[in-house]
Amino acid sequence: MPHKILISTSSFDVDGNPALQRLAAQGFEIVLNPHGRRLSEAEAQTLLGDGVVGMIAGVEPLTRNVLSSAMNLKVISRCGTGMDSVDAGAAAELGILLKNTPDAPARAVAELTLGMMLGILRRLPEADRGIRAKQWAPLMGRLLSEQTVGLIGFGRVGRRVARLVRAFGAKVIAFDTQAVPAEDGVEFKSMDEVIRSADVLSLHVAYQSELRHLLNAARFATMKKGAVVINAARGGLIDEAALIQSLQSAHLAGAALDCFEKEPYDGPLATMPQVVLSAHMGSYAKEARALMEREAAENLLTGMSAKGLVKD
Predict the structure, then answer these.
(1) Is 263 a catalytic residue?
(2) 234 is catalytic
């Protein structure tokens, strides 16, 4: 039985990927996600069955249970940045090498964040829906240049967002748990100060269990009336029920979300006109996606070489 490579992302350009073609030429069988969507835990467990030694992973739950049953798995190469869907402790115990692609998606996520900010402030989705419903009603919006943009997280994406919004003339305040290099025009404050002071609050932190519901009812209550929230990071960072209540009370003016606690999302936020939603597609820009896929496959090849699974 040939060794197998599982690609669990919903789509992947195998033919145009040199590293994967090299693996195929050495006899590895490449297995694609047959569902065309995020895998469930049970589906991931099934696909990681007999003979899978390497994996290019999406955001499916790679729990201890899944990894423990993947008897031959040696390398997981995440096509993306966040590793919160992988039980890293279990992987280390089982001798499974973990890699990711932190640089490739940063520009795409930052640009999507900027698009969400502009869309929610100028109410573009509302205007679009109105015209499609034969309702001509110019909507009063707000200028990004006149807002204080607060960034929670100032890593690869947060820093890019800061530069983009500063080009519009916005004031930028930021918080990060780590010491980060100074950035011209960015004022660093405590997390609570950023949350209280921002007109536009944007999340750019990796999900960890201690950050679950980082934005909850108590923190929403401290935000400026009329502020908006942007999340193109991870879904569990926001208490969605508390967000809905804050929007319904008109304390918050709007929200733009690319990720959710449960995906695909089909909850009540989808019925609210002041909310912009997208399908966890922050990295889904053609150029960024191609770079991510190349890096993920190269990381897989390097990892499998380190494990002695490929020929030089």
Answers:
(1) yes
(2) yes
